[in-house]
Amino acid sequence: MKKVTLTTLLKRKNAGEKLVMSTAYTAIESRLCLNAGIDFMLVGDSVGMTHLGYANTLPVTMDDMLAHTAAVRRGAPEAFVVFDMPFMSYQECEAAAMHHAGIAMKTTGADAVKLEGGAEYAPLVSKMTAAGIPVMGHIGLMPQRVQVCGGYKIVGRDEESAAQVMRDALALQEAGAFAVVLECIPENLAKTVTESLEIPTVGIGSGKYCSGQVQVITDLLGLMDFCPKHAKRYLNAGELITDALSAYAAEVKAGTFPAPENTFQ
Ligand code: KIV
Prior knowledge:
Elements lengths: L5 H9 L4 E5 L3 H9 L4 E4 L3 H4 L11 H14 L4 E5 L9 H15 L3 E5 L5 H10 L3 E6 L5 H4 L9 H17 L3 E5 L3 H10 L4 E4 L7 E4 L1 H5 L15 H18 L11
Parallel strand pairs: 1-2, 1-8, 2-3, 3-4, 4-5, 5-6, 6-7, 7-8
């Protein structure tokens, strides 16, 4: 399989293909995504909730992200992998942001980084891009701001916040972002933003008019107790895995596992 690059993704977008992105956090997940034909992968800071047991993304550290991204890269050397900059790895100052993005690129083999924020981060996006680090923007609902927003809410329902989403999208494009995630904005606003940009929009909870979609792999596979409205379960893996583990436990208790074929003499 040929390595997927930024050029590959932009060619697909310009040919009118929808881009498909999934989160992946481990080597096995990235291999499965690649084999399934997923165009590119995000090692999201959602790993905090999906794999690390946190209530939100705020506790996730650079070290967590470095370990998971390196694993994703090992599982799928050909994939285009995006490293999600964790909370407070880029907000403090540009020097720290550049340093952390540089470590992400140099040590994990990531192809790009993603950060949450709009026009206020345009100078940083510009600096990263100039330094050779492709940047994916993320606007609309920004989970790292959950505490100031008082929860996870749809963004852009009123005129002023819709105008802000549009300004942010244009500022990120102007700064050199190669794509922008639109999270939980109304479908018509996502359509207008998508039509106004040259770069791809990648939606989550923002309807069908985006250039592509991103979803959290554990939502797609049915591994979490709760499935958000914007996601769809394509598998009830949680139930299947529980059944398999129950069968294993029952056989050990009953003395039927290991059987002769699982045993060395
Ligand atoms: O961390 C994540 O999974 C994300 C997606 C929701 C886009 O940022």
